[in-house]
Structure formats: structure tokens, C-alpha cells
């Protein structure tokens, strides 16, 4: 169904990129990748460790390299990290090499979804709702800038979100 088209999921942490991406990959028989998981495989350490040793700038450089490599594969479904859109190189690769799907999510939904996770270095020493609001203020316009499809995920099941995305993808190929 995808042909040679890639699907790249962007959006804030807690928007469901990984769960939705895996579901779409099953529907399309395309391999699924998660950029954060790829970085962990390449380095042999987890994301919090990279942040601790190299800071956010070091992590963003590793993320840029992973996204540059992954977006050259076809066809794939890729879930990116929430901050992947911060670097212009990433935005350019994503926009040029596939269909970019922005999973739009409220701060309340994000806060609810990420409160249990321990793998969120940007939230480790901050009030989650305040930090997520601050991050969205900077990242929200960047998500919208490169999005081909925007789907809201608040209070929705993975299958329903994936079905909306599939309809959007089919409409783009008609």
C-alpha cells in the first residue's frame, strides 16, 4: 500500500508515536523504527545516559545522524523523538523523504501518558506540565511546519488514530 513512501511520525512525547507507528507498520507490512531505540542500539547506552554524559546537544547530534540514515530506507514507518524537529537538517530529511504525520496531543494528555516513564531526561528535574508547555511553545510550530497530515490523539485508541492516518495516506496517493 505504501509503495516507496515512508511514514514519519512526529509530535511531542506522550503523543503515541511508537504505539501508532507499530500499528501502521503492521497494516502496511513496512518495517518499524524508533529513532530513540536506534540511537540506543548504536551507542549501547540508554537516552538518559547520553543526556547525562553529552548533554542535549550531544544527543541531538546522535539523533541527527540516526534520522539521516533511517530516512534513506524505503519503505519504513519511523517514530521520531519529540525534539527531532528542533534541527533544520532533521526537518529537511523528514519532509523530503516521506509523509510526515504530526500526532497532536494536549498537554494534559501528554502529562498523563509520561508520568509513569523514567526514560524522559527533559522531565527529570521539572514539573512535567510546565516543562511540556514550554517544549510545545517552541516545538509546536515546527511540527506544523513540516506536517503533511495532522491527527489528534487525545482520548483515542491506537487503532482509531492509525485508521485516520491510513485514510490520509490513501487520499494523498489518489
Query: What class would the helix/strand composition place it in?
Result: alpha/beta
Oligomer category:
single chain
Number of helices: 7
Strand order of the largest sheet: 2-3-1-4-5
- The helicity comes to 55-70%
Distance between the termini: 12 Å
Low-confidence region ranges: none
Q: What's the short story on this structure?
A:
By secondary structure, the chain is of the alpha/beta class.
Topology:
Layout: E1 7-10, H1 17-28, E2 32-34, H2 35-43, H3 47-70, E3 77-79, H4 88-97, E4 99-104, H5 107-114, H6 128-146, E5 149-152, H7 158-173
Parallel strand pairs: 1-3, 1-4, 2-3, 4-5
Helix pairs in contact: 1-7, 2-3, 5-6
Which key features would you list for this structure?
alpha/beta; 174 residues; 7 helices; globular; single chain; 56% helix
Amino acid at each position: 500500500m505504501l509503495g516507496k513512501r515512508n511514514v514519519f511520525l512526529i509530535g511531542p512525547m506522550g503523543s503515541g508515536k511508537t504505539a501508532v507507528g507499530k500499528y501502521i507498520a503492521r497494516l502496511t507490512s513496512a518495517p518499524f523504527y524508533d529513532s530513540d531505540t536506534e540511537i540506543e542500539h548504536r551507542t549501547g547506552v540508554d537516552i538518559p545516559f547520553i543526556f547525562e554524559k553529552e548533554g542535549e546537544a550531544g544527543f541531538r547530534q546522535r539523533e541527527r545522524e540516526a534520522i539521516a540514515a533511517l530516512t534513506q530506507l524505503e519503505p519504513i514507518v519511523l517514530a521520531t523523538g519529540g525534539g527531532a524537529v528542533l534541527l533544520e537538517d532533521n526537518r529537511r530529511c523528514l519532509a523530503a523523504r516521506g509523509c510526515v504525520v504530526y500526532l497532536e496531543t494536549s498537554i494534559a494528555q501528554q502529562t498523563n501518558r509520561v508520568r509513569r516513564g523514567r526514560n524522559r531526561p527533559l522531565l527529570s528535574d521539572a514539573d512535567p506540565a510546565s516543562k511540556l508547555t514550554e517544549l510545545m511553545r517552541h516545538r509546536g510550530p515546527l511540527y506544523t511546519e513540516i506536517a503533511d497530515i495532522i491527527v489528534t490523539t487525545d482520548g483515542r485508541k491506537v487503532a482509531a488514530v492509525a485508521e485516520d492516518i491510513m485514510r490520509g495516506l490513501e487520499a494523498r496517493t489518489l
